[in-house]
Amino acid sequence: MRIGIPKERKLLESRIALTPSAVATLVLQGHQVFVEQGAGQGSGYHDSDYLAIGAQIAPNLAAVYVNELVVKVKEPTVEELTLLRPRQILFCYLHLAAYPQVLSALLAKKVTGLAFETLTVNQRLPLLAPMSAIAGRLAVQLGSQYLQKQYGGAGVLLSGSGYAQDAGRVMILGAGVAGSQAALLAHALGAEVYVFDRYAPALSALSAQQAAIHTYLYDAEHITQLLAHVDLVIGAVLITGAQAPTLLTQAQQQCLAKGRVIIDIAIDQGGCVEGIHATDWQQPIYWREGIGYIAVTNMPAAVPRSSTQALSAAILPYVLQVAHQELAENPILQTAINVENGIIKHDALRNMTL
Predict the structure, then answer these.
(1) Is 197 part of the annotated catalytic residue set?
(2) DSSP of 193-233, one letter per residue?
(3) Are 92 and 71 spatial neighbours (Cβ–Cβ below 8 Å)?
(4) Could you tell me which residue ranges the Alanine dehydrogenase/pyridine nucleotide transhydrogenase NAD(H)-binding domain spans (predicted)?
(5) Which of 95, 197, 264, 346 is catalytic?
(6) Is 268 a catalytic residue?
């Protein structure tokens, strides 16, 4: 199969879908791979690295989108959508619940859209998990930074000074991969951590890893009571393929003291914090009524080298399966199909207003 890998167009997005070693595996199995010029540069991979293992360098975006399969990181931009062709396969993070205009375009183009984030194996999301883990850890780092006074924060050190009972307090909504990784890192720094989730087994799994983390079944009243004492709130909820539910209302947000920070990792799926709007790495935070809001839609892009390596390792087995023409009969690949031949295939998208 002919496979195209474009350079990402999203603002400050430097990841590439596949590393040279992953592309080498595809080439060795007889596939032709076309990597857009400069696509790997931001992740530390040069065109010469891809040429050395047998890939071809495409001079521009159009030369990538003539191929049967396009593998990329983020949802296609307007420029990319115009280049898509009927029955072409697009494999990437689509997040169509948050991007109805992209959904409409994919339907109109009659593209087969496979979403990394909905591919499911034994009720797990193996292609979402590595980026969720990175996003969760980055959220704690970001929160630590913007709680500092020079950035507008309250001047709180999450770890505490070590000389007084002054550790910061972190509330996390969601105990999945992103939420758990955020909780574990925040605890390791020395913060007092409170995690809420509606799924008891997820809380139990987190407690088994670190018993000192406070875990609770979701309770809006309990959350409201705690917010006055919390320095950092991280929203990390997920419903596979669907719009994220609102778990932090605007009224609850006003319970936070001035100079505190809210980070919504779920912004890729519309966000779980009421009234929040998406930000980017150029300006990751905005302040409203004394509260900082961070909602970067491509959190792992801040660490493209690490993110690319993790993503490439995760997706390669499934890229190989698609390239080997297994899509029609492979039940795992079927879970990734969001749209096909102008038809919505994923249940979570069927009731969307277009």
Answers:
(1) no
(2) EEEEES-HHHHHHHHHH-TTSEEEE--HHHHHHHHTT-SEE
(3) yes
(4) 147-295
(5) 95
(6) yes
CATH superfamily of the 2-115+303-349 domain: NAD(P)-binding Rossmann-like Domain (3.40.50.720)
What's the whole-model pTM score?
Answer: 0.94
Q: Which residues contact 227 (CB under 8 A, 6 or more apart)?
A: 171, 233, 252, 253, 255, 256
Token readout for 348 is 């979570």
What ranges do the domains of the chain cover? Answer: 2-115+303-349, 131-302
Q: Which of 197, 231, 264, 268 is catalytic?
A: 268
Four-way CATH pick for 131-302: 1.10.720.60, 3.30.2130.30, 3.40.50.720, 3.90.1150.10? 3.40.50.720
